[in-house]
């Protein structure tokens, strides 16, 4: 970084990125989660920083290291992620990559839930989590550029388009997360960039390369 003379088209811009899964507690020792590794979100945070942005990364629980050159905040639940993101507005750019748990347990237990021999387990009552991207996309301090992801296992374009509209995003990065693609938890990603006017299908790339291309696209859209 000391001798980094690469172009900084995002110098002076602030960005908020979410990454990783969230963990929603069932009781003190158990939680609901998903297979997100945080690799794509962390790579995007690093790529935006490389182009000169002042980046705050709000990360759910992941095993990968904090990226260099980025301020990383660690959260566990969707509620904590929402609070961390909204308290960092205003920003110029928001890229919501996290695989936020769609539901949390309606009232998580204070004590470890014990199994009762011979009795059927109690059902878990779930309630919907806040939608962080949608909140940011309709916020009074809405960033100039709001980017979301769409994790799909079918009808990728159609579902991506509807998320673009519903969530008030400028761009949706849609990907197929079916198990056979290996995207969830893996190193590579094949995405479609969906805007109001176009769909651009990118080739299968490493997640770092998707991140760099996306950061360049963001810089071009803000220029
Ligand atoms: N997202 C979010 N907060 C949530 C759920 C999703 O910020 N509670 C964001 C994700 O970070 C992503 C986008 O919304 O940028 C789409 O997430 P996705 O899971 O694909 O869509 P959902 O709206 O949750 O719909 P579904 O899971 O039913 O497809
Ligand atoms: Ca979801």
TrEMBL record:
Domain DNA/pantothenate metabolism flavoprotein C-terminal: 10-220
Keywords: Decarboxylase, Flavoprotein, FMN, Ligase, Lyase, Magnesium, Metal-binding, Multifunctional enzyme
Details of cofactor binding: Binds 1 FMN per subunit.
Region (Phosphopantothenate--cysteine ligase) location: 15-223
Annotated EC: 4.1.1.36, 6.3.2.5
Biological pathway: Cofactor biosynthesis; coenzyme A biosynthesis; CoA from (R)-pantothenate: step 2/5; Cofactor biosynthesis; coenzyme A biosynthesis; CoA from (R)-pantothenate: step 3/5
Record's keyword annotation contains rRNA-binding: no
Residue positions binding CTP: 102, 112, 130-133, 149, 163, 167
Coiled coil: none
Highest rank taxon of the organism: Bacteria
Gene Ontology BP term (one): coenzyme A biosynthetic process
Any Gene Ontology CC annotation: phosphopantothenoylcysteine decarboxylase complex
Cofactor: Mg(2+); FMN
GO MF terms held by the record: FMN binding; metal ion binding; phosphopantothenate--cysteine ligase activity; phosphopantothenoylcysteine decarboxylase activity
Reaction(s) this enzyme catalyzes, per UniProt: N-[(R)-4-phosphopantothenoyl]-L-cysteine + H(+) = (R)-4'-phosphopantetheine + CO2; (R)-4'-phosphopantothenate + L-cysteine + CTP = N-[(R)-4-phosphopantothenoyl]-L-cysteine + CMP + diphosphate + H(+)
Family to which the UniProt record says this protein belongs: In the N-terminal section; belongs to the HFCD (homo-oligomeric flavin containing Cys decarboxylase) superfamily.
Function summary: Catalyzes two steps in the biosynthesis of coenzyme A. In the first step cysteine is conjugated to 4'-phosphopantothenate to form 4-phosphopantothenoylcysteine, in the latter compound is decarboxylated to form 4'-phosphopantotheine. Catalyzes two sequential steps in the biosynthesis of coenzyme A. In the first step cysteine is conjugated to 4'-phosphopantothenate to form 4-phosphopantothenoylcysteine. In the second step the latter compound is decarboxylated to form 4'-phosphopantotheine.
Protein name: Coenzyme A biosynthesis bifunctional protein CoaBC
Species of origin: Rhizobium soli
Lineage: Bacteria, Pseudomonadati, Pseudomonadota, Alphaproteobacteria, Hyphomicrobiales
Part of the whole protein covered: 196 to 418 of 418
